[in-house]
């Protein structure tokens, strides 16, 4: 099989070709410019690739309601030119193949459930913690949508008692994204996150916020795996700190080995590494092909 | 059709017969005693009823994993005699019909999605706020399970700045249940909740806590309806207070009419009223019959 995949990020686009085993056979990337310039690059790339389907996992917010008149559009992003842009429709005019269309984080969750850390499981939640915080949700064997798509990066968190940083989210100030995304670390400690030593108190504070959101997710959804990706999670010293804080938050209430002795194998890095997004888009394309 | 339904509560059991339209044709109730006494009453009731299936929506926590050796058991409840009891197995020995088995709140969510306030929608979340707080989750047309079942009554909340009450949850102190279930209201204000006037500041504080959990649920899952049942929610003055607080928490970030001008029709009372639990158990029985 030849499945086209588009991982559409706010700063760069990655396009590639994958197969039904999740292997990515080739890939290119280019910066995210205006939608017209960027989609022209995408169309050029796929022009002669003879793909059977295309999966798109994109930054958002996006309209994912097939019954909506603006299905396939980017909705309210501040990114110049992209607000209201008909991303999916533009590609459908060029390629007569089935299309998968979802958020980048839902794509990553599906990729992880298909070939990665949650392979064979009926549920997982994928967090990306980088310049923002995004959440993809896979439950009972399906990606979760509703009114819109999950936006769990913006849940409220309790402030750390020693934290005086006000948070940078323009909507909520000190929500999870406002307190725990990469820019919050830099603004709070006045240094790039990558320059902080692994034993710096910044990491315990970071884990404090991330663990609250994860504990809430475990309580509400009981996912079979929690996967933490994104640039901030390259700081692997965060994992044991998060494990400990999640257990402290749950305090024994959820009675399952995965959140007790097995927690190091329950809250994990992406099994697909930095390919989670692109592989996830392959998985979206495969699902679209199966439905067609 | 004749579907048996069991709404198994911590203080009383309700048993009844329903049909595929969600009509409940008859019902009985009796107090929850030891499992042996209580289940003998259940078995007696259904003995000559000629039901085609039985749905059970029960207090928990329970084992809902069909692959588990203790599937159908109550797990770690402090209720005398019930911890580890084989609730489902005891009934299966007596009645050779398909059985549905889930939590009371998941049952209520399914009932509301089948015949109630979320009829025809692909998702809803059902909160019961009474002596405790429970949450049922229906998403993409299915009830949500995972490691265990949703336990969203125990999510962390931010304390109200004027609240000095410490919370009564034995696991988490001041989680949602600890701060917002009926006993918290009584302990905080030293008076029965039902005796507080409708304009008492207790209700704004109550809404403050409930709205945090709902806003978090909307962000993570984006359900198409949020349904609030249970004894505390008989205080209908809570609804506008909750609507306002949810909007304040989201602060315009989720761009959908349901959480803006349509919020009074989005966060609502159960369409099935106090029948949500029993009708939900009928719906569980119907699903079991369809699967069989």
From TrEMBL, chains A, B:
Please state the Enzyme Commission number of this protein. Answer: 2.7.1.4
Pfam families to which the protein is assigned, alphabetical: ROK
Q: State the reactions this protein catalyses.
A: D-fructose + ATP = D-fructose 6-phosphate + ADP + H(+)
Q: Which UniProt keywords apply?
A: ATP-binding, Carbohydrate metabolism, Kinase, Magnesium, Metal-binding, Nucleotide-binding, Transferase, Zinc
Cofactor requirement: Mg(2+)
- Which GO MF terms are attached to this record? ATP binding; fructokinase activity; metal ion binding
Q: Which InterPro entries match?
A: ATPase_NBD, Carb_Metab_Reg_Kinase/Isom, ROK, ROK_cs
Key word Cell wall biogenesis/degradation present in the record?
Answer: no
What family does the Swiss-Prot or TrEMBL record give for this protein? Belongs to the ROK (NagC/XylR) family.
- The name on file for this protein is fructokinase
Q: Which organism is it from?
A: Paenibacillus nasutitermitis
